[in-house]
Design a protein that fits this description.
238 residues; mainly alpha; 2 domains; 12 helices
Length: 238
């Protein structure tokens, strides 16, 4: 496990702390002609070597270095304004995948699928996924009886900001509950109320106030019920 932690540490340091934003801009501009691309890969190899400090792990260092170049170069070639955001996450996912593969392939550790695909973990994934898009769709259908677009037509909020805020708050509430920190749920509700107070005060719009209140209560309610169901079910076999 220590080797895996060291590899993850080297990736974080090399990919984020030792790669200035101006390097990123130059790479996106010059692509494969940018010297910063090759310097970045070299730094990554050096950092990984120093942190591992084990000559017997040279294969891991070489594979990570070569794969890092291939992944970054491919991203630069196909990247444009439309896919830049999604490619960033794909890029990081690929880097991490290489690290985990190298760890389990070139060390004595073995990957036991049975220890990963358990009832607890599968139910956890189901609950977390349910609290994202499905819950947003459920709430959208609940509010379909009201003309929400009319209430929020002058709202200058970011696009889909409400959806992402809802997903984050439901996920946090769920995590707090399964770890038994109900007081954190109360703190989150209080914090959101403080941020929303200005909107409710300035709007002077009873319908908008009711919409925000109902939406908050439903969102928190879905997360709380999901958390209770999860802890109840898992308590029988954990």
């Amino acid at each position: 496990m220590m080797i895996l932690i060291k590899l993850l540490l080297a990736h974080i340091i090399g990919d984020f702390f030792l790669q200035p934003q101006k390097w990123v801009v130059e790479k996106e501009s010059k692509k494969l002609k940018s010297p910063k691309l090759y310097l970045h890969v070299l730094i990554h190899i050096i950092v990984t070597s120093i942190i591992l400090w084990d000559a017997s792990l040279w294969k891991i260092i070489i594979i990570i270095g070569i794969s890092h170049f291939i992944i970054d170069a491919t991203k630069l070639i196909i990247q444009n304004k439309k896919n830049k955001r999604i490619l960033f996450f794909i890029d990081q996912l690929l880097h991490l995948s290489v690290i985990f593969i190298c760890y389990f392939f070139f060390t004595e550790n073995t990957l036991n699928i049975e220890n990963i695909i358990t009832e607890y973990n599968l139910l956890l994934v189901v609950c977390l996924l349910f609290l994202t898009i499905p819950s947003s769709i459920i709430m959208k259908n609940i509010f379909i009886k009201w003309n929400i677009s009319e209430l929020t037509k002058n709202n200058e909020s970011l696009e889909d900001a409400g959806k992402y805020i809802g997903i984050l708050e439901r996920t946090l509430v769920f995590i707090f509950i399964i770890f038994g920190h109900w007081e954190a749920v109360g703190f989150l509700i209080t914090a959101k109320s403080v941020f929303r107070f200005g909107d409710l005060k300035d709007s002077k719009h009873r319908q908008l106030t009711e919409y925000i209140l109902i939406g908050t209560l439903i969102s928190f309610g879905i997360a709380i019920i999901t958390g209770i169901i999860f802890t109840t079910i898992t308590s029988y076999y954990v």
